[in-house]
Amino acid sequence: MKTAITGGAGFIGGHLVEHLLAQGDEVSVLDNFSTGRIENLQGVLDHPRFHLTEGNILDKVAVENLVQGADRVFHLAAAVGVTLIVDHPLESLRTNIHGTEVVLDAALNSGASLLLASTSEIYGKNVSDSLDEESDRILGSALKSRWTYAAAKGIDEAFAYSYWHEFGLRVAIVRLFNTVGPRQTGRYGMVVPRLIKQALASEPLTVYGDGLQTRCFSFVGDIVPAITRISAEPSAYGNAFNLGGSYEISILSLAQRIVELLDSSSEIIFVPYEQAYAAGFEDMRRRVPNNSKSRALVGFDPKTTLDEIILSVADEQRRSTAPEPASRKVEVASN
Ligand code: UDP
Q1: Which of 147, 283, 307, 316 is the most exposed place for a label (fewest CB within 10 A)?
Q2: What SS3 class is residue 36?
């Protein structure tokens, strides 16, 4: 199978590339290396069935070249990470809305099927015990940049549904809930790699707010096979599927568990949100997925425990503290 991936040098993208190559796919990646990193592809750069192009999803010709001849497309490219979105809302809006439209058009014109990566952020401040795909979205003020990501991804989904309904584009959507694992960087906010890095360096673990906000972390090694199976299911077209962890934990408890498990001498400190992000920043207090729909479709049943996740991320961080720069075999899109 010929598979094209936008954002394939991202944290999830790199794991997806490895998974698809192991399945026998021919894999082509387009990434502009804004948040993507060549290190995420280090193990596959010389693989004979792997092709990498450096370019932007706003560049129609680059996207058309990527998608041409592909059987399916995974659209992972996005401006992600709360820090990035708060600091650069315009870039996030342009990439996440216009970029997605470019990818949808290219898939439609080439006849490829499409898997769109969406996010649990779209549920916003809905603190339900069990967010299912029909749950309401509760977003804060349109004047707050934090919500622009959720707004943009909601529009992406609306575009995808419309392409399915009006043009018959075979497109499925996955909503990812706090996917974590080795090679994720904490640079753009993500809490698990950040706290683990702090614990390994014996620095204070920075817990934002009161630390009682909760999340359900899922392991990239559980998510990637599920995404792949959903992409191969015709009954998934025109539909969205939650993919998240099943264990809810507060950020304070997460920090405590990391310190304990890694036997760290770090203390835990509380950092006010306005100091961590910006004045008026609003967090989500809780985000708990209902995975029934993805379980029914592809048997999604995340097995990796939080302790296993923490240990695998810590192990990878220890090994990559002084990374060798990877040799780059990258084509640069000429447009
Ligand atoms: N967070 C934290 N310390 C950090 C980074 C993040 O306490 O150093 C908090 C953040 O405010 C949020 C939670 O951890 O409540 C998850 O943050 P992340 O950015 O990983 O994901 P998201 O907010 O998108 O769920």
Answers
A1: 307
A2: coil
